[in-house]
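User: Hey, my collaborator sent me this sequence without any context and asked if I could get a structure. I don't really work with proteins. Can you help?
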Amino acid sequence: MVIDDHTLVREAVCRMIDSEPDLHVVGQAGSVAEGRMMLQQHPLHVLVIDVSMPDGSGLTLARAAREASPRLGIVVLTMHNDDETLLEALDLGASALVLKSAPSEEVIAAVRRAAVAPDAFMATGLAEALRRRSSSDKPKLTPRETEVLDRLVAGDSIAAVAKKLYMSESTVKTHVSKVYEKLGAHNRASAVMAALRLGLVKPESAGNLPR
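Assistant: No problem. I've predicted the 3D structure and written it out in structure-token form, which is a compact way to encode the shape of the chain:
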């Protein structure tokens, strides 16, 4: 599905996708409201969505779509070439961010990749943006919160964290809530991504994490 308020851009992207033998557009929308309604009506593997629309943010709609469908591929197609947009797309769980000025081959490649690897984010300039963000002040975690974060990164359940750290599950949940708050995260996956970005944990320590 393609959601973009610019009719010419939206139709061009739809034609480009439909011209591929292995791809098919099941629907298109020109606003956040229309897109939200159509997402409820059409099963799909990949969502291609613009950022700025007259009635709201495409990123907000993309976040809701990700929460509703963890395995949905999401390609953010935008003219905004800035760290804020790129990192917000990463945080919400998008599969890729592609500039509207990119070659058509790049858009198609992002769609195909999003279909098979929705959890693996791809964007030009990602490494540089992460370095710039990591140079900012890191949140201050207590030693106990750091221990809990380490176990979350390793993929442990709440019950496993409680057992390994000799705490009650309710106490672990309290620490987890504090960690989420300090990292600006809304779930385990976004907390781990934030921790990786900020250099609070090492990439090799991350386990298999649900969205």
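In plain terms: Residues 25 and 180 are 37 Å apart (CA to CA). You can pass these tokens on to your collaborator as they are.
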